[in-house]
Design brief:
EC 2.3.1.-, disordered C terminus, Aminopeptidase, 2 domains, 31% helix, four-stranded antiparallel beta sheet, acyltransferase, single chain, eight-stranded mixed beta sheet, transferase, 12 strands, alpha+beta, GNAT_dom
Length: 293
């Protein structure tokens, strides 16, 4: 273990990436999206950064992965060892590290529940940020099952293939209410480098989704004219197989109170691996409301 660094979180070198990749693999399924993210570093070489606390490369390594988005700032993912209980040492490391700018916009992505309270306390009590926590379930499908997905008997007129970078991004974002400046550029980059799926009906794009840089399936959308045709399930199943072919673990999240989404995941055969949280911070200067006039 390397110590005495000016920053408690030390960059994992390219030569060390396979070591941490194996650590995350041993933590599956809880580490599914972090594992997918480090696998994707080959494609997003300059976008994904990997750190460990004190440079630890052992099975007990606390791993922090970041990627910058043009719209929502930095996406942050953290993998902790099984049964790990966050302590004061980790808290101080997160407060002191320069890898997280607590004043800028950030999102902690599908954060393991044991870490959520600590991150929320740091962001609000220590850093005085307005912070939102969104409870989720994280789901996964076994890769062997994903590889068995069969698309040989599709109904006439239906075709499934990866999305086009430009047309696919426009389709997904035209009806996504969270689009901001920079979102189209991010989505186009993701479609270009990561698995995506489009379901076409008579040549028209009717349903689509993609795998984000952080390794979770997202932006699933079906055109209103083609709902209740099972296209969303086809889209997800196609992504499952594409991810598994690349060695990734098919995984996604659902807000804990979104019964419709939770039931959809169950119909797909996905299982809940653990409860997680998304922790959002919007800088005060960018917030839509505040308590002062």
């Amino acid at each position: 273990m390397r110590t005495h660094s000016p920053d408690p979180f030390i960059v994992v070198s390219e030569e060390e990436i396979p070591v941490i990749q194996n650590v995350l693999k041993q933590r599956l399924p809880l580490s599914a999206h972090e594992y997918n993210m480090i696998l994707g570093k080959r494609r997003f070489r300059h976008d994904v950064q990997v750190y460990t606390l004190d440079g630890d490369l052992s099975e007990n390594a606390i791993t922090l992965l970041t990627t910058y988005r043009e719209d929502y700032g930095v996406d942050i993912s953290i993998s902790i060892p099984p049964e790990y209980i966050p302590d004061e040492y980790l808290k101080q490391a997160l407060i002191e590290t320069g890898t997280i700018n607590w004043d800028d916009a950030f999102v902690f992505v599908s954060l393991p529940r044991p870490l959520s309270k600590m991150i929320f306390e740091i962001s609000t009590v220590v850093k005085k940020n307005s912070t939102t926590v969104n409870p989720n379930y994280q789901y996964m499908l076994d890769t062997s099952e994903a590889l068995q997905q069969d698309f040989g008997n599709l109904n006439e007129g239906i075709e499934i293939r990866p999305l086009d970078k430009t047309a696919g991004a426009k389709f997904l974002l035209d009806n996504w209410k969270y689009t901001k400046d920079g979102t189209p550029e991010y989505v186009q980059k993701v479609i270009e480098k990561n698995p995506s799926a489009g379901v076409f009906v008579d040549g028209k794009l009717a349903c689509g989704a993609l795998v984000n840089v952080h390794g979770l399936i997202g932006l699933l959308y079906t055109d209103n004219h083609y709902r209740r045709m099972g296209l969303a399930q086809l889209c997800m199943r196609f992504l499952f197989k594409e991810m598994a072919r690349m060695g990734q673990v098919p995984c996604s999240t659902s807000q804990s109170k979104n019964d419709k989404s939770c039931n959809f995941h169950k119909k797909l055969g996905m299982i809940i691996t653990h409860e997680t949280d998304y922790v959002f911070h919007t800088p005060y200067s960018e917030a839509k409301f505040n308590t002062c006039t």
